[in-house]
Amino acid sequence: MKQIDKYTNKKILVLGLALSGVSAAKLLHKLKALVTVNDYKNLDENPEARELINEGLRVITGGHPIELMDEDFELIVKNPGIPYSNPIVKKAIEKGIPIITEVELAYEVNESKMIGITGTNGKTTTTTMITEILNTDRVLGTAYAAGNIGTPASEVAMKATESDVTVLELSSFQLLGTLNLKPAISVITNLYSAHLDYHGTREEYVKAKMKITDNQTENDYLIYNADQEELSELVIQHSKAQLIPFSRKKKVEQGIYVKNDRIYFNEEEVLEVSDILLPGKHNLENALAAIAVAKLMNKSNEAIKKALMQFKGVKHRTQFVCTFEGRKFYNDSKATNSLATINALEGFENPIILLAGGLDRGVSFDELIPAMKKNVKAVLAFGETAEKIIETGKKAGINKTIKVVNVEQAVPEAYKMSEPNDIILLSPACASWDQYPSFEIRGNAYMESIDQFIQSKQEEE
């Protein structure tokens, strides 16, 4: 960890806890800042706050009192999930107090080489792929996955050395709170509309995403999806980094592409598409980005191939669960929008029983229709959007569409509607918050229900 003194005796407010807030507060405390932590949850249900109090930090819980802004804070480190409409945040902006997110703080002290990954979809899978490849046959140091993937960037920054690599998944929420962040290698997997309730407009969302390359220079690299015309134009106009395009549809110069089911980087054959274990065109794109990073980091083709032949995916992201009586169950609970579900559907050739539904954000699901028509034979819908999902299925010509209460009830019903060689796929196309606190809990409930169902069937026999 770099030893810096810019925060010594500076009054800093950490707004919002969760993992990143706890880690940021501990790092600032180590840097000898005068830290105040403010979290909405009450102290009696807030173990993170109690932990920080025990370490000697000042912690205020049970709300976000606007009176805090009467104190002379010099910086606010904001939890990414707290919107800029929050009264404390608005007051800080009025007073000209800088507001950053924890990833910016981590960047300032991180000694390791940093690789940043953003995009609308595929961030976590690409981040994990890169980490797995970089750690394969590694002799010196460790590649750490951090950021939006779950491990706070500042937690890694406190232990990473010059021999290590930080592979940092960056959401638009996190990027919005960066000032000097500059990855040596940046990746933009793709760019669609998302989180407009937070950003206000698509333009602001795109602007936040492009901050990943704002500070890059000609000594850095930006890997991007050349199959997206808008993204290609944006990076050419916006970035000063060396541009490395990836494409699964066409040959690209000075980049990575697919030709005759083989993957090439700058004309060099790296591996065959069939060497990638994960199914789906979207995962092929994720792999192209990951391979490009690996080649820039001088990983051998053998190490890349070895890693990708073993990589089974990330939990809740088109995750293979099990095979039972010829049916293959997949958990894609992370698919919280239509595009992610389209990607999952297009990854399979076999007939699909689709389990979908969740929080109603007032959007149409008609963009699912072409992918549904391909090989979805039945739809089981749940949650606030159940009726909308069923209506979409009917528009796609699917005769078997039923409403169930939740994913737990969907599992036995899906089995009844299935046959050997079918895919039973949870890919909700919606956020989980109407019924489940997170997509992880929804996915876990699905997998637990599969285990219980299989056990009950075996007991019957």
From TrEMBL:
This is UDP-N-acetylmuramoylalanine--D-glutamate ligase. GO terms for molecular function: ATP binding; UDP-N-acetylmuramoylalanine-D-glutamate ligase activity. Gene3D superfamilies: Mur ligase, C-terminal domain, Mur-like, catalytic domain, NAD(P)-binding Rossmann-like Domain. ATP binds at G119, T120, N121, G122, K123, T124, T125. Residues 316-430 form the Mur ligase C-terminal domain. It is an enzyme of class 6 (ligase). GO terms for cellular component: cytoplasm. Residues 117-294 form the Mur ligase central domain. Transmembrane segments: none annotated. It catalyses: UDP-N-acetyl-alpha-D-muramoyl-L-alanine + D-glutamate + ATP = UDP-N-acetyl-alpha-D-muramoyl-L-alanyl-D-glutamate + ADP + phosphate + H(+). Its main location: cytoplasm. Cell wall formation. Catalyzes the addition of glutamate to the nucleotide precursor UDP-N-acetylmuramoyl-L-alanine (UMA). Pathway: Cell wall biogenesis; peptidoglycan biosynthesis. It comes from Marinilactibacillus piezotolerans. Its EC number is 6.3.2.9. Keywords: ATP-binding, Cell cycle, Cell division, Cell shape, Cell wall biogenesis/degradation, Cytoplasm, Ligase, Nucleotide-binding, Peptidoglycan synthesis.
